[in-house]
Amino acid sequence: MDDGPVPAVLFDLDGTLVDPAGGITGGIAHALRVMDLPVPGPEVLNRMVGPKLADGLVGIVGVPEPLVPDVIAAYRSWYSLRGMAMSRVYPGIPELLGQLRAGGVRLAVATQKPEALARTLLAHHGLADSFDVIRGSHTDESLMPGEPGYRAGKAEIIGSALEWLGGQGRSIMVGDRHQDVNGARANGLDCIGVAWGFAPEGELEAAGVAGVVQTAEELLQAVARELGTGMSAATEAAHGPV
Question: Which parts pass through the membrane (predicted)?
């Protein structure tokens, strides 16, 4: 029996599901010091959580393009040894994912982190099996725009996840930066923003986010409203009317 289209929720990773807890910014600072490059302050380093790493190193930190591959190599070495272990799952996320799956929703990750590393990080936190598909950027993070194999950004990654999901019903993106909002819009999706991530004040609203939530429980309720009555009924059974 065909139960009709199945709704889907696509999640960003860092700043949405997992708190890097200094694992990203600390690694970038370490890599810059190794390369004898200036290390910017915390406000600038926090802006590096969200964009593609190579793009952020050039456009935000000001690393000369010829040095980008070496900076990335130093960063990834530090991240593998120390950074991943520093990360933490945000409160309520495992429960949220379980409730969405129980409500019949398909789940995906769409991140600008390299896809293999995203899978490793999610497995490290016991979350990988919660998702039907995990999509990320190219393994070679040093690729720059115009080079063969370069993946354009969040819109392409979200599109790849949607293509894998196939004939799903209504879908929505969840993220913490303007890249998530813009990438979702490019694929015809709305985006719910999370307040616990790395967006500067007003960034998500300026990008046209559908709404911003403060907790995982609020996110569950917002997703239920966006996806329609079937998910709303499942959520109401667990938490009361939404």
Answer: none
pLDDT digits (tens, 9 = 90+) for 55-87: 899 999 999 999 999 999 999 999 989 999 999
CATH of domain 23-86: 1.10.150.240
Q: Please compute the mean of the pLDDT values over residues 38-46 and round it to a whole number.
A: 94
Q: 2, 3, 12, 36: which one is catalytic?
A: 12
| Residue 235 phi, psi dihedral angles, 5° rounding | -70, -40
Of the candidates 1, 2, 9, the one whose C-alpha atom is nearest the C-alpha of residue 165 is 9
Residue of 26, 32, 83 lying closest to 62 (CA atoms): 32
pTM of the model: 0.86
Does residue 36 carry a catalytic annotation?
A: no
- Considering the segment(s) 8-19+88-239 as one domain, its CATH architecture is 3-Layer(aba) Sandwich (3.40)
Q: Domain limits of the chain?
A: 8-19+88-239, 23-86
Whole-number Å distance between alpha carbons of 160 and 202: 29
Q: How many CB atoms lie within 10 A of CB 163?
A: 11
